[in-house]
Amino acid sequence: MTGLGRGRLLLALGLGLSAIAGAVALSCLLGPQPVSLADALAGVEPHRAIVLGLRLPRALLAALVGFALAAAGTALQALLRNPLAEPFVLGVSGGAALGGALVLLASVGLAGVAGPAGALLGSAPPVVLGAVLGAILSTLLVFGLGRIGGRLVPEAALLVGIVFNAFVAGVITLLKMLVPPEQAARLLYWLMGAIGYEPPGTLLVGALVILASVGTLGLLSARLNLLTLGDEEAATLGVDVRRVRTQVFFAASAATGAAVALAGLVGFVGLIVPHLVRRVVGPDHRLLLPASALFGAAFLTLADALARLAFLPLGTEPPVGAVTAFVGGPFFLWLLRRSTRREAEALP
Amino acid sequence: MRGAPATATATPTPTPTPTSTPAALSSSGRGASQGGAIWIGAPPRRPARRIITLAPSLTDVLVALGATGRVVGVTRVDRAPEVAGLPRVGGFLDPNPEIILGLQPDLVLWVTDGGALAAVRRLAELADGAFPILAIPIITVADVSAAARLTGEAIGDPAGGAALADRLDAAVERLRGRAAGLPRKRVLFVVGRDPLVVAGPGSFPDELLRLAGCDNAVGGVRPWPVYPVELAVGVNPDLVIDAALDEPPEGLARLAAVPAVRAGRVVRLSSDALLRAGPKMIAALDELFLALHPEAGR
Question: Which residue of A has its CA nearest to B119?
Answer without folding.
Answer: A197
